[in-house]
Amino acid sequence: MADHRAPGASFAIGLGGEIVCSEGFGYADVEDKARATADTAYRTASIGKLMTATAALELVEQHKLDLDVPIQTYCPRFPEKQWPVTARDLISHTSGIRHYEGPNVEAEAFNTHHYDHVSDALDLIKNDPLKQQPGTDMLYTNWGYVVEAGELKNSRWSDMSSKMAAGGWLSTAPDLFRFMNAWMAARFLSPATMKTMLEPYRLRSSTIDKFGLGWFIDDYHGMKAGLYGGGTAQVSAVVFLVPEKQLAVAGMFNLEGIPGPERVALAEAIADVLLGLTTPNPDHFAPPK
Predict the structure, then answer these.
(1) What is the 3-state secondary structure (H, E, C) of the chain?
(2) Within-domain flag for 94
(3) Does residue 13 belong to any structural domain of this protein?
(4) Which domain covers residue 147, as residue numbers?
(5) Fewer beta carbons within 10 angstroms: which end of the chain, N or C?
(6) Pairwise CA distance, residues 198 & 195, whole Å
(7) What CATH number does the domain containing 138 carry?
């Protein structure tokens, strides 16, 4: 918080299925001097993609969604492209659908138009060609916007209805922990599907080293870890879990632009303390002034 001059943050940390610490730090609202609490709500940003992927795979297990048929089977509003696009391509970020780009980058990232239906937002991209053949490489279809330059400012207004399934929700750190805990407890998906989500996604000729089918994945002290970062107007967030230890960390800052690797490193450092792998530095956990 000090390094990035973040006005506030909320964290929930859990082990063995129970929250062992949930707390807010600093201010949720600087102007009104409203303190951040554990239950302060923030935008999920791209962490919402993880929830959408989990929901999609639930539908697969219920035989309501086929990952490998053309997506027009379920969403006819999205026109056919030069190659077929499937739900599997979309979940794995290998569909070839573009980032925010070109002259409308800021207009798309800070879209102020409200969409009453999720599919209405497809008008922003439906006529654009794919950037690559689906399944050939990972092309993360989200655009990160960073402004601060050492001065704290109110974030620009952005209506999140254009990207609800990609992360337009509001949540709290404890609720993100509850989501991860339910995921690890197999309340959403079968163990086989969960394993698939945490295995490197297989491309046509290779694999993606750090992404599965919904989770970013990493090796944490020899254990499989799942993680996801979220960054959009007003927020930088991270979720991190280690199923082998039933450990989960959720953190949300009300400041955009905190680099993803720093958020992940912080989550891992907290996990190290929780598992007794390191001794916490008291200066890092001083009460906010």
Answers:
(1) CCCCCCCEEEEEEEECCEEEEEEEEEEEECCCCEECCCCCCEECCCHHHHHHHHHHHHHHHCCCCCCCCEHHHCCCCCCCCCCCCEHHHHHCCCCCCCCCCHHHHHHHHCCCCCCCCHHHHHHHCCCCCCCCCCCCCCCCCCCCCCCCCCCCCCCCCCCHHHHHHHHCCEECHHHHHHHHHHHHCCCCCCHHHHHHHCCCCECCCCECCCECCCCEEEEECCEEEEEEEEEECCEEEEEEEEHHHCEEEEEEECCCCCCHHHHHHHHHHHHHHHCCCCCCCHHHHCCCC
(2) yes
(3) yes
(4) 8-285
(5) C
(6) 5
(7) 3.40.710.10
Q: Is residue 256 part of a domain?
A: yes
Q: Does a structural domain hold residue 133?
A: yes
pTM: 0.85
Number of domains forming the structure of the chain:
1
